[in-house]
Design goal:
Elements (H helix, E strand, L loop, with lengths): L4 E4 L13 E7 L12 E4 L8 H24 L33 E3 H4 L32 H9 L1 E2 L12 E3 L10 E2 L6 H9 L11 H27 L15 H4 L3 H41 L5 H8 L5 H8 L7 H18 L9
Parallel strand pairs: 4-6, 5-7
Antiparallel strand pairs: 1-2, 2-3
Helix pairs in contact: 3-7, 4-5, 5-7, 7-10, 8-9
Length: about 375
């Protein structure tokens, strides 16, 4: 998303820490009205993250253990989902991920939703992240006042970096407690190439009810991955003493132990994607609602042309936006592109405010 875009940096509040509130945004130069397929992408996390020595060693040990499990699985289960090339971080070889269809699951387990969800979140967040947490160990910033957030947060938590040992090398199906909502487990390993990570995450179930265009989802996660790769490089430089000259043009070292995202970075990518889509979904819903209200008032005005300007002002006071009054009071019976863009910005501003992102510039 680097072409035709510029980046605005808001004031960083002292309460904002790695992996919490959104800190960066890109803005398309093209005018966007009904939808914002080219509009802002929000990425949470600083440009770099310096870890303590103890935390860095802890993460490296976890990475080694994860890779050992992967190698062990490859050597003992030739037909498993993970028998593909371990070097897929450096290639674009096809990697099979689970869609829980009858064709991909054979004799799989059946789990309740609670059984399918993680039970421990210790390695889901940076070991140096010092924020208030819920009783289950998740930071309080993981709860957002956005439409369908809880549902899609659950979907995001059903994405795992590897098959759990108690699943016996089979990806379980989930027995949903809700009659009209299905859940699935998806495997997105942290050693995938960035291209495959993007493809798999964009095709996940997160906010599938929004029916976002695939191209919009791909561009959103691409931006997030690009930022994540740069932050990962900075972590390796700052906390592991890696010489910057050792990285290739793709910001890789060609050493899978170091090039894999750490578990908390992997989760941060998923949560950033969840947050981006959640904000977009909320903005689109509120935008359509405001446009619908405005069109209704305009239609009423067309029917009764004798309404004076004072009564029009009164009828629009509940909308609390000068844009609406400008359209009606100045006797403009259409909604121009400029007005639509202004309404979109107003919607963004209100959503950001609700998320305690007041410092963000609206685009």
């Amino acid at each position: 998303q680097q072409q035709q875009q510029h980046i605005r940096q808001p004031s960083y509040g002292t309460s904002l820490t790695y992996g919490s509130s959104p800190l960066r945004q890109t803005v398309a130069d093209s005018t966007v009205l009904e939808m914002s397929d080219e509009c802002s992408s929000i990425d949470s996390g600083k440009s770099g993250c310096s870890l303590t020595h103890a935390s860095a060693q802890q993460l490296l040990q976890q990475q080694q253990e994860s890779l050992k499990r992967l190698i062990s699985r490859n050597s003992t289960i030739q037909s498993s989902l993970f028998s593909n090339d371990i070097n897929s971080l450096y290639t674009n070889d096809t990697f099979i991920t689970n869609n829980t269809s009858s064709n991909t699951i054979i004799n799989s387990n059946l789990l309740s939703l609670n059984q399918a969800l993680p039970t421990n979140y210790d390695d889901y967040y940076s070991p140096d992240l010092d924020v208030e947490k819920f009783s289950n160990g998740r930071p309080i910033f993981t709860k957002r006042p956005l439409k369908n957030w809880e549902l899609n947060d659950l979907r995001s938590l059903l994405i795992y970096p590897e098959i759990k040992s108690d699943w016996k090398n089979k990806i379980p199906e989930i027995q949903s407690p809700y009659p009209n909502i299905n859940f699935k487990i998806q495997i997105i390993p942290n050693y995938l190439s960035d291209e495959k990570f993007i493809e798999n995450l964009a095709n996940s179930d997160i906010y599938k009810e929004a029916n976002f265009d695939l191209n919009f989802k791909l561009k959103t996660v691409t931006y997030i991955i690009e930022r994540a790769r740069l932050r990962h490089k900075q972590i390796l430089i700052d906390s592991f003493g890696i010489d910057p000259s050792n990285f290739n043009i793709n910001n890789l070292l060609n050493n899978i132990q170091y090039d894999c995202y750490f578990k908390f970075e992997w989760r941060n990518i998923i949560e950033n994607y969840l947050l981006n889509l959640g904000i977009e979904y909320q903005c689109r819903i509120e935008f359509k609602s405001k446009i619908s209200k405005l069109k209704k008032i305009i239609n009423e005005k067309k029917i009764n042309s004798n309404i004076d300007k004072k009564s029009i002002k009164n009828s629009t006071s509940s909308l609390k936006n000068d844009l609406y009054k400008k359209v009606l009071v100045e006797n403009k019976l259409g909604i121009t592109d400029d007005v639509k863009l202004g309404i979109w910005r107003d919607v963004q501003s209100q959503v950001y405010k609700k998320l305690n992102m007041d410092g963000w510039e609206v685009n």
